[in-house]
């Protein structure tokens, strides 16, 4: 187990280093370089030289990359010239709010999708299974922005029950104290998540119910609920463990489309606004953060496999 963790950690570090190299090179591959991208097309040659000297862009690429790594190790993700703030400051402000939004959505997704998938597996090929399967396909195939706009039209415009925009507070505490404003963003992400998670849960549960240990448990007189939740669930839950591991980036970075539609001031909206204003340092820093979280999420999912399913042995 320890050897496996060391190998997987080494692979994760290698991937993170490669991602850092790519994000570093992307900034230098911008048309006209980073100086032209930040100062504009009409910047004078003297202004460009001053910008390059002030930011170290006049040095060789290996030295620039080493300085880039040194800044990353010290928590310096760059500086946003559009907002005149460090990217680390922007992340510290918006990251908790995105984590709160995605965390709520993920909690309700698992809470609904797991029993729903089990119910569909038990009721396989019955009318209610067909209805729920069709609803899952509709929710899975519906564009997120369209679903968000549809919910706004129904609950905000027609019934006037909920506000059309998310809380605009600068802190996560403000979002917590405005639960009505969080309903539609969380509902949007939950519907999309349930449509995906329940399909995986249904398929895994159907396969598990055909295994020999299920028939043995039934032959020994185990109750229906005992078979489902004591014997079947632990083995059928493995796909959900994988999805949860891959959901770690979304848990922290939020959802770009949902945050943009509801104007929720999180990391997703920050990324969208940075793309609109060509704030390249912020864009590349957020890309690096999400890439690191994706690698960490995969590593967590691999470790969780051995905890959930004791048949898995790492060598």
Describe the structure.
Helices cover 77% and strands 1% of the residues. With 315 residues, it is an all-alpha fold. It has two domains: 2-87, no CATH class; 92-308, MetI-like fold (Orthogonal Bundle). It has a two-stranded antiparallel sheet with strand order 1-2. The N and C termini lie close together (6 Å). The mean pLDDT is 84.
Short descriptors:
16 helices; MetI-like fold; mainly alpha; 315 residues; two-stranded antiparallel ribbon
Could you outline the blueprint of secondary structure elements for this entry?
Layout: H1 2-28, H2 33-39, H3 45-55, H4 61-73, E1 79-80, E2 85-86, H5 87-122, H6 127-141, H7 144-158, H8 172-176, H9 179-209, H10 212-219, H11 224-236, H12 238-246, H13 248-253, H14 256-261, H15 267-277, H16 280-308
Antiparallel strand pairs: 1-2
Helix pairs in contact: 1-16, 2-3, 5-9, 6-9, 7-9, 9-11, 9-12, 10-11, 12-16, 15-16
End-to-end distance: 6 Å
The appropriate CATH architecture of the largest domain is Orthogonal Bundle
Low-confidence stretches: none
Share in β-strands: under 5%
- Rg value: 24 Å
Secondary-structure element string = HHHHEEHHHHHHHHHHHH
Short description:
The protein has helices spanning 2-28, 33-39, 45-55, 61-73, 87-122, 127-141, 144-158, 172-176, 179-209, 212-219, 224-236, 238-246, 248-253, 256-261, 267-277, 280-308, and strands at residues 79-80, 85-86. With 315 residues, the protein is mainly α.
């Amino acid at each position: 187990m320890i050897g496996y963790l060391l190998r997987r950690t080494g692979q994760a570090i290698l991937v993170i280093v490669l991602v850092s190299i790519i994000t570093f090179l992307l900034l230098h591959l911008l048309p006209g370089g980073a100086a032209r991208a930040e100062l504009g097309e009409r910047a004078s040659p003297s202004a460009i030289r001053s910008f390059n000297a002030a930011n170290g862009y006049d040095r060789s690429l290996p030295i620039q990359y080493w300085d880039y790594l040194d800044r990353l190790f010290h928590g310096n993700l760059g500086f946003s010239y559009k907002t005149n703030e460090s990217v680390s400051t922007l992340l510290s402000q918006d990251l908790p709010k995105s984590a709160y939004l995605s965390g709520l959505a993920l909690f309700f997704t698992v809470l609904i999708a797991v029993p729903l998938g089990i119910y569909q597996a038990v009721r396989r090929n019955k009318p209610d299974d067909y209805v729920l399967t069709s609803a899952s396909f509709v929710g899975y195939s519906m564009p997120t922005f369209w679903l968000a706009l549809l919910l706004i039209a129904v609950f905000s415009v027609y019934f006037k029950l909920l506000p059309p925009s998310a809380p605009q507070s600068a802190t996560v505490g403000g979002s917590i104290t405005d639960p009505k404003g969080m309903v539609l963003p969380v509902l949007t992400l939950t519907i999309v998540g349930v449509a995906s998670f329940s399909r995986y849960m249904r398929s895994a549960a159907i396969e598990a119910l055909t295994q020999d240990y299920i028939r043995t448990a039934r032959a020994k007189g185990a109750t229906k609920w005992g078979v489902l939740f004591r014997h079947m669930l632990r083995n059928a839950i493995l796909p959900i463990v994988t999805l949860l591991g891959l959901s770690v980036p979304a848990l922290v970075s939020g959802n770009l489309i949902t945050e943009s539609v509801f104007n929720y001031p999180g990391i997703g909206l920050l990324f969208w606004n940075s793309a609109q204003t060509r704030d390249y340092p912020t864009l590349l820093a957020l890309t690096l953060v999400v890439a690191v979280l994706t690698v960490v999420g995969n590593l967590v999912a691999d470790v969780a496999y051995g905890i959930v399913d004791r048949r898995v042995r790492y060598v």
